[in-house]
């Protein structure tokens, strides 16, 4: 593995989390280098955004392939061609098959807009409001074949306010997503957090969060 881990980002849309990862990786002491942004949609706005930042891009259109297996093998080939070591999902709107997930086991991260294991799937902010929870948030986890069920790397929480609607709550969570994802990727890319069976093992001194609502603590 290189001094800075080589990371690929998968997107399907504008890539707001992608943008924060690109910005974080510009720091010379950040342990990851973004070497590729790939999308299943050639018209994804995030591809142009990445290209403007000087990052290599690839469009692997799922509609041009006869089945999921063919699409995923083409995507996998593009990632390996660029030497990608870790993979980050940032608004990638395709459910990946067990074959692809196993090929990248322990090296693929996703961010989900809830405090997993609560509120898996879509419309998480509506789910949180309907459940009446007082705390909501986001989770970075390793990807496993079961949707939104992978071992948790990091979480950040926000309060749910009495007058919140979906938009207000989503905006509050998104602020934390943009902080949490670069920090979690840094933990994994540097080897301070790694997949160990069905849990995440942390190196000593990787940061606690006593008295905080972010765990592990952000820099």
TrEMBL record:
The keyword Ligase does not apply. GO terms for cellular component: cytosol. CDD domains: FMT_core_GART (cd08645). It comes from the Bacteria. Keywords: Purine biosynthesis, Transferase. (6R)-10-formyltetrahydrofolate binds at residues 68, 110. It catalyses: N(1)-(5-phospho-beta-D-ribosyl)glycinamide + (6R)-10-formyltetrahydrofolate = N(2)-formyl-N(1)-(5-phospho-beta-D-ribosyl)glycinamide + (6S)-5,6,7,8-tetrahydrofolate + H(+). SUPFAM superfamilies: Formyltransferase. Gene3D superfamilies: Formyl transferase, N-terminal domain. GO terms for molecular function: phosphoribosylglycinamide formyltransferase activity. Residues 6-185 form the Formyl transferase N-terminal domain. The active site is at 112 (proton donor). GO terms for biological process: 'de novo' IMP biosynthetic process. Catalyzes the transfer of a formyl group from 10-formyltetrahydrofolate to 5-phospho-ribosyl-glycinamide (GAR), producing 5-phospho-ribosyl-N-formylglycinamide (FGAR) and tetrahydrofolate. This is Phosphoribosylglycinamide formyltransferase. It comes from Methylobacterium aquaticum. The gene is purN.
């Amino acid at each position: 593995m290189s001094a800075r881990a080589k990371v690929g980002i998968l997107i399907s849309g504008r890539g707001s989390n992608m943008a924060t990862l690109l910005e974080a990786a510009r720091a010379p002491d950040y342990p990851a280098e973004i070497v590729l942004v790939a999308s299943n949609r050639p018209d994804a706005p995030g591809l142009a955004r990445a290209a403007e930042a000087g990052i290599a891009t690839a469009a692997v259109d799922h509609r041009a392939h006869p089945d999921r297996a063919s699409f995923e093998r083409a995507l996998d080939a593009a990632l390996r061609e660029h030497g990608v070591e870790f993979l980050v999902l940032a608004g990638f709107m395709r459910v990946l098959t067990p074959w692809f997930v196993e090929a990248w086991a322990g090296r693929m991260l996703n961010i989900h807009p809830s405090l997993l294991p609560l509120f898996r799937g879509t419309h998480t902010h509506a789910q949180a409001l309907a459940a009446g929870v007082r705390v909501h948030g986001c989770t970075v986890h390793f990807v496993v074949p079961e949707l939104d069920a992978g071992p948790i790397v990091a979480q950040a929480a926000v309060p749910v306010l009495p007058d919140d609607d979906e938009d207000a709550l989503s905006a509050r969570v998104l602020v934390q997503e943009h902080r949490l994802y670069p920090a979690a990727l840094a933990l994994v890319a540097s080897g301070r957090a790694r997949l160990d069976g069905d849990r995440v093992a942390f190196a000593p001194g990787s940061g606690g969060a006593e008295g905080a609502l972010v765990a592990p603590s952000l820099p």
